[in-house]
Amino acid sequence: MGHFSSMFNGWARSFSIKKASSSGNCGGREAVEVMTREAKKNDLILHSSGFVNVNGSNNFTSLYSKRGEKGVNQDCFIVWEEFGGQEDMLFCGVFDGHGPWGHYVAKKVRESMPSSLLCNWQETLAEASLDPDFDLEAEKKFHQFNIWKHSYLKTCAAIDQELEHHRRIDSFNSGTTALTIVRQGESIFVANVGDSRAVLATTSDDGNLEPVQLTIDFKPNLPR
């Protein structure tokens, strides 16, 4: 609890100082930009076909995409090891564009979502830590879920607005799926829009691999 308490208190102080001058933007944007640059410098971010393995870590991540016969490959993806400077956190995202500008939309969302989500997550944590009744250890998983849910909602709304006002991208006739996963310790948080799919590989009692579908494909014929 000590590690989380000090982390919360540090972000809370930073947030309270910067909130007044943030003009609606995340107060920790500059810190997140520094984290992003450091992660790229240390090869912790992968957004093209290949693999990443952090020294001393048991994680091994690989990405692969192949262009189909329709023309431009509109797939974009990203993996960020040690997301937000936390050794136990990992961010994964898959963005499949559609429409004439789909590849631009997918690329823009890939570029914006991780840092925006991280910024909103830190801000939400800071706000929560200022609440005298907030106790992370009490119903820890419930609090973690709500913090990520709130962070995702703010992030998606901001990116949607950013795309709507983008002068060079037609986001009305084009768009992208957005399937992202944050692994925090032993917990996995999934956010999904569109028909990209997350599948978890598990081991059955007899030692065989078994797939577990984590998301529902959002399609026009999906029952309400």
UniProtKB/TrEMBL annotation:
Pfam families: PP2C. CDD domains: PP2Cc. Residues 60-224 form the PPM-type phosphatase domain. Signal peptide: none annotated. GO terms for molecular function: protein serine/threonine phosphatase activity. InterPro entries: PP2C (IPR015655), PPM-type-like_dom_sf (IPR036457), PPM-type_phosphatase-like_dom (IPR001932). Transmembrane segments: none annotated. It comes from the Eukaryota. This is PPM-type phosphatase domain-containing protein. It comes from Vitis rotundifolia (Muscadine grape).
